[in-house]
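TASK: fixed-backbone design
INPUT:
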């Protein structure tokens, strides 16, 4: 399970960083967004599964 989450984290953080950079964000914002967004998505998926919505 850790491998799937690690691959997701890597891909999601890369996409988030590229999108933030393309939108003209500073490097600090790009790093912050790429480190913050993937765990939030994983947490949301875990909560949705816990509540039984999926």
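OUTPUT:
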């Amino acid at each position: 399970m850790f491998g799937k989450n690690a691959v997701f984290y890597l891909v999601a953080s890369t996409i988030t960083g590229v999108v933030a950079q393309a939108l003209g964000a500073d490097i600090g914002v790009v790093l912050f967004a790429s480190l913050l967004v993937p765990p939030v998505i994983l947490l949301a998926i875990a909560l949705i599964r816990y509540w039984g919505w999926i």
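COMMENT: The two ends are 18 Å apart (CA to CA).
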